## 1
Amino acid sequence: MRRFVAMLVLGLALSASTGAQAYHRFWAGCNTEAPTFMTTMTRDAAQDYANAARYEGYQWGGGCWNYDDVDSYPNDPPSEVGTHGEGGDCSGLTFKTWRESTDTTRDGRYYWRALRNVHGPYDAAAFRAGSGAPNHTVAKSTAGVMDAFASNTHIGMVFTRSLYGGDQIVEAKCEACGTNIFYRTYRSDSAYGGVGRWGWTG
Amino acid sequence: MKPAVLLLVVLVAAACGSGGRARPLLRGGSAQAFGAVRGSALTAARVLRRASLGTRLESCLLRGDRTSVPADAPVVERVGVDGESLTFADSTGSGIYACDGGLDPAGERPLPWCGRVFGERDHGRLLDPRLDVNCRDRRGRAVAYAFVEPVADARWIGVQQKGYLEVYEALAGLPVRVATAEAVEVEEARATFEITEYDAAGHELVQREIQARVAG
């Protein structure tokens, strides 16, 4: 009996441990499947794609989420890739929404499923510089729906333009605030530049 | 002669008898060996001022960033076997820039720079290594760049390359921009750096692995 109790206690302790396994959680359900090449790439479809990622959370260096409208692992330590939580980060969300390729020389037009864990080779600063064949800088005054505003540390896409100086921006913002649509004044913020993606078909 | 320079001379001189083939540096010349490690390659490094670098630095900075870096800002220039870089801080010291050297596969940036990164500091330390996987070397291999924050008392940062250790000197209180063409996974936007750190006398302090991902 004593031995049984000891084993029971040990088993309970092991099952309750959250050490090493704690940071290998959401990504365990993500996949590496190939993207689907699409001949069309419309701004409407990009809006739908980004809109569907709302409420799915934020993960530094991430690019994997489901569609249950809940951040499975909110409030992880910021700037920590190893937490492996749900959601994209700002550049990961943009990469997937813009149907980009992991090869910077290619146009892409790849539809990445939500659970495909991919971030892409660009951080916000690279997007800001217009790096990569599919990307380019645009004048902020002309930035329209599904163009983006990028600084050295953040990028958000224009969901709708506003009449009052700001824009409704869809963005993966932070661990605490997740991915959502926010009113922002990036258009008039000198830290931000306008960025676009070539090749929209509508 | 300053103690640091004297120390370097001693370390390099000690390496002369250690054998091993000298590796060519990216911009000509051969890498000296780091005395503490047989067959190592010491990256050429120096501290300059922004104003003295002219277009070499200005061609890397975006127009919107040019006012955020003082003209007299110290800039660490490094030339290694497969990579070269510039590292400098903004006027507040809370942000670190790096210009990464190599070929831009997308053909958008002329040599020498293929990438530029910006990292935020929190309490004096970078939030993450700011990995860049968008450069290629002359052989077409992907070259990954990342920042290393030296541990306390570390003066030399060794990065394990294929068959040798490439050694970088920590300078000007800035994080050390290191490069590797090994263990780079472009498709997954990640790279692994095998790091060994040494104190000023060349004594090994710590070994660690940095698994870096493109983020933010």
## 2
Amino acid sequence: MTTRPITEDDLHGFVDQRLEPKRVAEVQAYVAEHPEIAARINGYVRQRDVLRAALAPVAEEPLPSQLDLVRMTAIQRRPRGVPWWASAAAAVALILVGGAGGWSLKSMSQRPTEGVASLAREAADSYAVYAPDHIRPIELRASDRAELVAWVSQRLGRPVAVPDLSASGYRFMGGRLVATAHGPAVLYMYDDDHGTRLVMLARPMATEKNAAMSPLTQGAVNGFAWADRGIGYSLVGSPPAEAVHPIADEARRQIAHDA
Amino acid sequence: MSDMASLIEPIIPALRRHARGLVRDRSTADDLVQDCLELAIARWHQRRVDGNPRAWVFAIFHNLFRTRLRRMARRPLHVAIEDTDEAALAVDAPQDQQVHYREVLDALARLPEEHRSVLLLVTVEDLSYAETAKVLDVPIGTVMSRLSRARDSLAKEMSGEARPDAAHPQLRRVK
């Protein structure tokens, strides 16, 4: 009977007790004939034991109250991105809209239909739909960025770069296409360490092809919109406007710089 | 909710141990664990129901940890990893053992982050090689080569073979 040659991986698997019993016996036989390998393996085992012993007391310590899950879930009963009252307000608004019937159409018609103000509304609407979604907030993840950018470029007829907001603590999650009255728009979503989400919506502009940054507040959503060489951008989220403003500035700076 | 608590709560002590092995300083480590738990709660619905919650939580932790390291490298606001308060190191053991434990943790802190992470996940947290690969989002072959290099460098650091260099002026033998 011939045995497969012993590999480095086998030696580590032996130390970590991850091998099949048959392979363990083979490694043991090999080690018995190679004292220098045996010494190495014993060293690794000692290392492992010392590391475990040195860190073991940490797992025995009583948990500090900041890490008490019961307390944490009580504070964070809802995802931080959307406070409970915002959802409640949205529900009330829906009932009112439904109940008011024709009145809602009247009020809808007063919404801006052109320019960056309209774009900002679309961003806030998309935020309200997708940001609280915990099942599929985005269509393509950050890991599929190339595919996402290609898709967006094809549908919008122009590429839309993904701003890097990590300096503000927001990671790119991914994105999707959304429908607007002005055709397809791209939605990029970001989140921070607390699960707070931001959304950037972008689409080609028919009017106001270049526009200075203007603020928007819609319910609990704050944001800013601007246009740069024919593409309109709006960055919105639940943090206060003062917090969103510098992030929007950063996104605008990167986009202006990229193009 | 209770389902979440019953799956996540038993992981917390191990998560703290892991964090402490990586960053040494108790409050920095616990803050990191807290942020990780908050994210895990917020993303609980996104996890795969058939997946292993332990590997899932550790993966969230490592994502956070890497983001923090990058941010700290850009503007070092907080405690640098190796420059921590010795008193924050809680090691409950006889005096000579304690010195030995401190030495091994000092030596560990001098390894590159990737090596430290693999070594701790495999040896202290007992994650399988496949789970470790998933947590760190690298191929399993990378886990094996990092593990091998981590063990060799730690052995060298411990035996005092490693040469002091300018990047680690605090490299010294305490005997």
